Amino acid sequence: MKTNLPSLLPIPLEFKIACATYNLSIREVLQLFIDHVSFYDSMSQKSDDLYRSATNTLLNYSISIRRAHSPALLKHREPILKYIQEVIKIASKSPESQAKKRKMCVPIVRKIYRSMERSKTQNTSLLLEEEITLQLSMDFCLLCEIHHCSPEEYLEHFMSQVSLPSTHANLGLNRVVENQAMGFFYKSLNIGKGIPAIHAHRNLQVQFIDQIQELHLWVFIIRGYEKRVQKYQELYFNYYQLLLSAQENQITTKAL
């Protein structure tokens, strides 16, 4: 069901910087995340791929906020529970591959989806700033309803967890921090199409690599996490501004 688009969802600066650093389309990363949220994987912990990272990002957030049970399940509770049991049975007993099991569960997931009284996902399109439109998948909508969270809330959480400065700071201090959202972001680099880089961007990338290598050495003596994050944030922000400036100059040159 498609109705009017909701209000604009803001995109955090650090998420913009992460996408720009790796030459990725913001829309592509977010759509990829939505498409890899899987109801099957919410019932199975046997995979270690994009589906696992995306799904666990949502599940971990849902657990952390401990929201009340969703009213979406109430009207058809018994048949929905029966369908869920069928998914669990496939996840735990079927000898097929994870990809095959996901496919086997699609008709069952569709029955659950159609049985719900949806309140959080009546709109299946989501509009972000910068004129980015996302399409919400059936599985994504289903988990939104089950955990009583809006799509905007889930996507805000995902984007807020993607931080290159924080990742560098933790690695330098040998801190092991579970971050499924960051794991998804890095895994998506292998399949993301990316945005064609202009010549000025390629030059900036070479300079940035040299600068961040120097920074890795410089912050070695800094043992405070917050101070490390600050130094990396400064470098990434300056790099981001240079990328934007180069892009604007290219647009201006083409218009002349």
Describe it.
This protein has 256 residues and is mainly alpha-helical. A two-stranded antiparallel sheet has the order 1-2. The N and C termini lie far apart (45 Å).
Question: Which properties best describe this structure?
Answer:
256 residues, mainly alpha, two-stranded antiparallel ribbon, 12 helices, 64% helix
How do the strands and helices of this protein lay out in sequence?
Layout: H1 13-21, H2 26-36, H3 39-43, H4 50-65, H5 77-93, H6 98-115, E1 125-128, E2 132-135, H7 138-146, H8 151-161, H9 164-172, H10 180-188, H11 199-218, H12 225-255
Antiparallel strand pairs: 1-2
Helix pairs in contact: 1-12, 4-10, 5-6, 6-7, 9-12, 11-12
Strand content: under 5%
**Major β-sheet strand ordering:** 1-2
Q: Could you give the distance between the termini?
A: 45 Å
Number of helices: 12
Uncertain runs are none
Average pLDDT confidence is 87
The general outline is elongated
Quaternary structure annotation: single chain
Helix percentage: 55-70%
Give a count of the beta strands, DSSP E runs of length 2 or more. 2
Rg, nearest Å: 21 Å
Q: How would a crystallographer describe the biggest sheet? A: 2 strands, antiparallel
The string of secondary-structure elements, in order, is HHHHHHEEHHHHHH
Structural class: mainly alpha
